[in-house]
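Continuing the batch. This is chain 6 of the set; chains 1 through 5 are on the previous pages. Same settings as before, nothing changed between runs. Recording input and output for traceability.
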Amino acid sequence: MSNQGGKQQRQSNGGTFAGPNSNNMFGANMPSSVYPKDSVKDVAESLGITNLRDNIATALATDIEYRIRDIVQSASKCMKHAKRTRMTTSDIDHALRQKNIEPLYGFYPPYTGGKKQGPWFRTVPTTSGAPLYVLEDEEINFEHILEHGPRVGVGRGVGWHAHWLAIEGVQPPIPENPVPLTRKMAGTDDTSLADAGEAAAELGNTAVKPLVKHVLSRELQLYYERLTSSILSPPTDAETETGTALPQEGMPLSNYSDISSGNLVRDAALSSLRGDAGIHQLVPYLIQWVGSNVTHSLRLPPTAQDPEKKLEEQKHTIQLLHTMLSTLHALLVNTSIFIEPYVSTKQHAL
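Output for chain 6:
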């Protein structure tokens, strides 16, 4: 029994558990009531609850007192962890955060000579006789705000202006156009060539631009493949009965495009070249394709020994050259293409 009594006495002195003769959980040295029931009645009256019974106010005050002591005990742990002997408001805030309770937001006191000045409070009489302090409402003068406040200017309204979306297939870097996506490097060889060019530029004080990879969209690549295959090797079932001939025999030609190629698919492809306005990026590829076909057909000697087969090969070569000239003519008559930068390349094919 003596051991149990000593154990209970130590617990009571430690302030963790209450002894058998104590009136609260914090020991006999703590006061039995910290939060009065009159404060509960004042808060109830501010919320519109009148004639609150005493037993209810006492029960609420007891529960509030338990919550306060629990928070203070947690705050004392924060104080001891910080190796301090005086509890501060930051300890209370840390204790509230530990219990997932929003911290209290207090007020600075009125002007006491410091840098920060708090709001003024006024006393409001209550039925219990205890003073109640509330914040003094600040009167706002709307006339002063309208006269001396910031003035909002009227905007110009909604408008529009024109800008270049693309020039010769190249998108200009202006704010109206979207930012181009960053592309990966062309490869190890291109990187080494670019580094060699930069090194040569540093040695010879010459501005050398690194290699730039020209990227075509998937739609343009598909269009280029279908176009070249339709011009060079169209399907045989689309050939006309008359073949390559003038639309009106005996009449002078007013335009080179009036000559039929003898195949409906090839004519449709050449007609697309004459009027399509979105093939700016394909122009250098088409010029190079025409030049390579012309060079290959002229340099390739006839392989057949038979005179008739040799004549057929020559006719095939002439027909291929005629098709390439029709392709160049379709590019020239297209008013939406700026062909001047490729004139020197085109002259070699002619």
